Amino acid sequence: MTVRQLHLNLFIYPDGHHEAAWRRPESQPERITDITYYQELAQRAEAAKFDAVFFADGPALADNIRYAARGGLEPITKMTAIAAATERIGVIGTSSTTYNEPYNLARQFASLDHLSNGRVGWNIVTTSSAAAAHNFGLDAHPAHAQRYERAEEFLDVVTKLWDSWEDDAVLADRESGVYADTDKIHRIDHEGRHFSVAGPLNAPRSPQGRPVYVQAGSSEDGRSFAARWAEAIFTAHQTLENAQEFYADIKARARSVGRDPEGLKVLPGISPFIGSTAAEARALEEEFNDLTQPAYSLKQLSNLVGVDLTAYDLDGPFPTEVVAPVGDRAFHSRSQLVLDIVARESPTIRQLCHRLAGARGHRVVAGTPVDIADTIQEWAERGAADGFNVMPPWLPGGIDVFIDEVVPLLRERGLFRTEYTGTTLREHLGLDRPASQYAPTPQKETA
Amino acid sequence: MTVRQLHLNLFIYPDGHHEAAWRRPESQPERITDITYYQELAQRAEAAKFDAVFFADGPALADNIRYAARGGLEPITKMTAIAAATERIGVIGTSSTTYNEPYNLARQFASLDHLSNGRVGWNIVTTSSAAAAHNFGLDAHPAHAQRYERAEEFLDVVTKLWDSWEDDAVLADRESGVYADTDKIHRIDHEGRHFSVAGPLNAPRSPQGRPVYVQAGSSEDGRSFAARWAEAIFTAHQTLENAQEFYADIKARARSVGRDPEGLKVLPGISPFIGSTAAEARALEEEFNDLTQPAYSLKQLSNLVGVDLTAYDLDGPFPTEVVAPVGDRAFHSRSQLVLDIVARESPTIRQLCHRLAGARGHRVVAGTPVDIADTIQEWAERGAADGFNVMPPWLPGGIDVFIDEVVPLLRERGLFRTEYTGTTLREHLGLDRPASQYAPTPQKETA
């Protein structure tokens, strides 16, 4: 099978993705609100020709801040400052359709796309935390299906707003005094169940037309949403088989709604512990796991599966029987993933905590640079991935190891670019620039 | 009277404040979405040791985009990119209490204050445009009094959020594994008429504690809001007498609510046309006025006074009789200001349009550098201003003339700094850093 170029994002979590990384001597938790820390990371990823940096987000404080280095900069501002300090790399950030107004979000992403010269992506989330609801006047978090219904309409509204200026609406004709051709600036007059928005947006159409639509939901609702809207999907899989199933399913769904499956890139997470031998890599992972704190890890696991596990013996078996079937629960796919690990490996609760400590359910691999390159190549060649969201266990050093040791192997194998060929995130990802839905359809040339 | 150091902000309007500036050969309307344009302007103001740059905003497209260079970058992103490209100058941007959620706004300004190392100010507006309402699901714009009621509660909520982490809440103690002292991170549990917000904010307290609170309303509601909350007031006055009345009133109101009037800086707008002779300056203003377009100017004036004037003779008198008394109308103070000009000068409609073309009702002065410095000094010495929001008629060149010709005179007279003495916007403005309302009151030392 011919292997195409892979896409690589650096997923930046303040001190790295391992929950105990901030306790390691090489971490820099004192820089959690220092923008130069993030700018430097993005510059390293840019020097290595990564497609993008990626940021998660939720509009509430994690309830385990006592044991975790959390609570830092807000994504829109962080993304902007990174765009200002880089030239080519994409910048993907998370914003919620549940806790934003579409007009405000559309403006900020359009502005980001302008000021980055077309390098912005929006990771679309519906937000699955009750704590967030309590910061926005809601007693309870909206149910999964309701959130996706709002998300669908939200996407419709913001897409119209981003399309509301045709690309050539600005004339800036000093002589006639006409600044904009108002026939090419369209009210959207959206009236729906959740939103009523007149438009137009108060900014010209941006370099990419719209930000790249990124999405991460893996539930039934999430997959069907992704098939309609997503251009890149960030997804968590522990095994090749699960990733292949997801990849085939999401591409088929895209096809079934009339989209080119090439227009939807699947990017699983991978968190690599890298050593000069496999044993050294595993020992490093152990060192990190030894710094985890049960009071934190158990709370995380309890949140993930929706059951309070604090009364159980840490070295006893995971009590599968008390976990409800996966239904409407928050973190649907992540919860299923935990149950799959339990079914496959029968870990103790402590072992399970360690499995999840690395990257909250994303795949952690420990091995030599060749091992890491091999598994990346295998997943790419066997229909499981169009690229990866690289989630270093620790930062800043963890990404340097990957860039210095693994990326050269991927290049030798013809799997990763040695230079950017485009200037926008869409170009890095091989995605088309969408036309405005309000623009006249181009006439076909006739013979 | 001893004159203290003045404060100077550069109020950046894309091509300058004169409505026809974009038609002049020295303008750069093609850079309206080019962030480097704004970064360069901020760098010039920083080199001249200005206190801050300032941006207006409204979440809707101006309805006269055909004739005006409008619709550019969104303020939070623009401010962030400017902070990333400067080191000392303050960055003040406008956000609406009517069309934002307090948790979202609090996060973005806290993040901006972190990443700028304490240089951010928030220009608090309630937004007075019906077009904005239609972008946020409202049929009609909320009435003035309702907007101010929501603004009061909004300020209460965001202030609590900015105070929710005590300054020393983050420990980052690798050894014990305790990242934050959760006894110093406070839920706000706000339950009010407009908002229910649990908190805490998901970011540590920022360098300035809170952004500098800036405000511009001059109505009765606006003044009483300013007296309680504002630390800097941006205000429009055509005459020394009006400015003196406002200055005395607002300082008295601050005193009456128990505040030190020094903690509230009054900064009128000034838009200077500068020439080597007064006649040359006036001729330059005329050149700009000659490029105005009645279809645009009349619409602006009609909006300002709430009456459609398009059927009136441009060279006839302003029809005072059809303008309703100033009441709940949007742009209260600006509307009154127009009526005052009419009462004082009896202009034709065209003359009135020209008076307003320069800076939308702010004071336009045409003169030599000495004339400009003299009027600035007079207003400062006679109790009308603590500084000025400088509104160049055209940009980028208009600010260079002011910096090169007027600022040196102000320095010779001991009115303006030659070097920054502080690093934060609060320090530039001579404002205290507020303590968190949740921090224990410091014990007084006893003998």
Structure description:
Chains A, B: It comes from Nocardioides pini. Chains A, B: This is LLM class flavin-dependent oxidoreductase. Chains A, B: Residues 29-383 form the Luciferase-like domain. Chains A, B: Belongs to the NtaA/SnaA/DszA monooxygenase family. Two copies of one chain form a homodimer. Chain A has 447 residues and is α/β, with parallel strands linked by helices. Chain A contains 14 helices and 13 strands. The first copy, chain A, has helices at 35-47, 75-84, 102-115, 130-134, 144-163, 220-229, 240-256, 278-290, 294-305, 332-345, 349-357, 369-381, 397-412, 425-429, and strands at residues 7-11, 52-55, 90-96, 120-125, 170-173, 178-180, 190-191, 196-197, 212-215, 232-235, 265-274, 363-367, 387-390. An eight-stranded parallel barrel of chain A has the order 1-2-3-4-9-10-11-13, surrounded by seven helices. A two-stranded antiparallel sheet of chain A has the order 5-6. A two-stranded antiparallel sheet of chain A has the order 7-8. In chain A, helix 5 packs parallel to helix 6 and helix 12 (369-381) packs across helix 13 (397-412). At the A-B interface, helix 2, helix 3, strand 6 and strand 8 of A face helix 2, helix 3, strand 6 and strand 8 of B.
List the defining traits of the structure above:
homodimer, 447 residues, alpha/beta, TIM Barrel, two-stranded antiparallel ribbon, 14 helices, Luciferase-like_sf (chains A, B)
